[in-house]
Design goal:
single chain; 106 residues; alpha+beta; 4-stranded mixed beta sheet; two-stranded antiparallel ribbon; globular
Length: 106
């Protein structure tokens, strides 16, 4: 048996939680063609929010090699995630460590 902690083993109440998500979804002219990765992340995101955490999601699309590529914007992902969660989501661009991050608010 592994002694690894899971999301059920931690108390996030009142804490900011940085959650790295795989939102590298296929796009066709800026339209998401398969949102499986977004849907798969929802149980974790919902649990963190339900447990009182302020969730910060970070991800990327493609491999922009250090430059800003408009076609690889996470804006379509942010929009779809907002629709799925039915809650406000802010997309922050050009952060020092990540190409883009989201702040989920309940």
């Amino acid at each position: 048996m592994l002694n690894k902690k899971t999301i059920d083993d931690i108390n996030v109440s009142g804490l900011r939680v940085l959650c790295r998500c795989d939102f590298n979804v296929p796009l066709d002219n800026g339209v998401i063609t398969d949102d499986t990765r977004i849907v798969s992340s929802l149980p974790t995101i919902k649990k963190l929010i339900a447990d009182g955490g302020k969730v910060i999601l970070c991800s990327h699309l493609g491999k922009p090699k250090g430059s800003v590529v408009p076609e690889l914007s996470l804006a379509p992902v942010a929009k779809r995630l907002s629709e799925k969660r039915k809650h406000l989501l802010h997309l922050y661009k050009k952060l020092s460590l990540f190409q883009s991050s989201f702040i989920m608010q309940d």
